[in-house]
Amino acid sequence: MGSTFKNSCLVGVGVIAGIGLTMQFSALSLKPPVEASMPIAELRQLADAYGVIKSNYVEPIEDKDLLSQAIAGMVESLDPHSAYLDPRAYRELREGTEGRFVGLGIEIAESEEGFIEIVTPMEDSPAAQAGIKEGDLITRIDDFAVQGVPLDDAIKRMRGEPGTRVTLTIARKDTPEPLRITVERREIVQKSVKAKMVAPGYAWLRISQFQEPTVDDMAARLQALYREDPELKGLVLDLRNDPGGLLQGAIGVAAAFLPKNAEIVSTNGQLADSRQRFYGRPEFYMLRSGADPLSSLPAAFKTLPMVVLVNTGSASASEIVAGALQDYKRAAILGSQTFGKGSVQTIRPIGRDAAVKLTTARYYTPAGRSIQARGIVPDFPVDETANGDGLNALRMREADLQHHLSNDKAQEIATREDEIAEQMRLLAAAPDAARLRKPLNYGSDDDFQLAQALRHLKGQQVALSPRATSATLARHAR
């Protein structure tokens, strides 16, 4: 698939592994394992297998590599989001939740030709300062050809220690010869919150991931919007392609718009500390001591008309926010059905520098709905563009993943086979220009879903998806 249909990612970002991770408050704390009787016979069998591999495999294998893979296989067989984190993965996860990483500072996607396309260089990043531009194609990383290489592998090659350098071979439109640009890696501070006025009286607030600084950054952005226009008429909260992040961030974002002390989410699992309710209070969303970033927000944000934009890439923590705002009827949810990841992962350190990311609970909206393998169903189903939802509708959801947890609140989760077959038919019939369109620039004048959100806030008719159910169409008929 080409750049049109790939999720872009940030080079060097410690992107949380899996599709959307919500980490609990105890995420980085060490807790003793539950005592259990040891299955001696099975452990002996494991030791025998280890011995056979060590003595018979075609090449020598390092003990630490073999044992790490054994741990990884054991954990990853549980569900799609549990994983063993080796030292590098553990470090990258911590960097991602902190909003800091060492890298080049470029947002990338896979091009139609299989190269790496620069979606945008981050402002003041090493890449931007070195002259890398939007639309550039990376064909080589140092001397490694990247055509057809998975994005994750390419990202690993561009990562490194601060102060080290990497040379990128760049193909640039209207430049006949390839360019070789050397970039020095350094720490990048990633901002997960953007905001701006998109029409007189109407603001757009985008959250791309829930990190440690997200609540503080959001509060600062909201205050700036209010200073720019104290007579705000409506706000669009954009959670499209937000894969999740820290649970505290989700609680803080929802709390900014809900009544004080409102329940945001609850969890239920095997351990006592996984059976909890979380409320819109500082102790539930503040990670460090200090002033409450939400305490100084104008009261208008508790009642300002809102629309929340979601799509299939909205997962986990972003589904917590959308679900809470939907349950309290605080905002209209517009877009496409979300990913459906309703489980919580907790990080359990093992040893000095490794950890296990383990699914420890399911989470539930304030009304008791489980989103697991179902997702948030929009109040207003609206396609990605005026010409249809493109391959957004074909993107993988939680229900498509092997070994996914069941939805314990639903008797049956509808299959997507018919939906996908219909999307394939529509895609095949679509003009090439529609099928190969560039990734959307969220918040731009060409953002169709944002335009529909503004129409709703203004009391105008919304262009609903042709695949909306008859009940939905009747509900929104005017």
Primary descriptors:
single chain; 478 residues; alpha+beta; Pdz3 Domain; 2-enoyl-CoA Hydratase, Chain A, domain 1; 7-stranded antiparallel β-sheet; 6-stranded mixed β-sheet; 13 helices; 22 strands; 27% helix; globular
Count of distinct strands: 22
Q: CATH homologous superfamily of the largest domain - what is it?
A: 2-enoyl-CoA Hydratase, Chain A, domain 1
Task: Give the CATH class of the largest domain.
Answer: Alpha Beta
Q: Give the overall shape.
A: globular
For this structure, the CATH topology of the largest domain is 2-enoyl-CoA Hydratase, Chain A, domain 1
Estimate the strand proportion. 15-25%
Low-confidence stretches: 1-21, 24-32, 432-436
* Helix/strand/pairing category: alpha+beta
Largest sheet: 7 strands, antiparallel
For the termini, the CA-CA separation is 40 Å
Tally of alpha and pi helices: 13
Walk me through the structure.
This protein has 478 residues and is of the alpha+beta class. It has helices at residues 40-56, 63-76, 87-98, 126-130, 151-158, 214-228, 247-255, 282-285, 317-327, 417-429, 432-435, 448-457, 470-476, and strands at 9-10, 22-23, 83-85, 100-103, 106-110, 116-121, 137-141, 144-145, 165-171, 179-184, 186-189, 193-199, 202-207, 234-238, 245-246, 263-268, 276-279, 306-310, 332-335, 343-350, 354-364, 380-381. β9 (165-171) and β10 (179-184) form a beta hairpin. α7 packs parallel to α9 (317-327). Residues 1-21, 24-32 and 432-436 have low confidence and may be disordered.
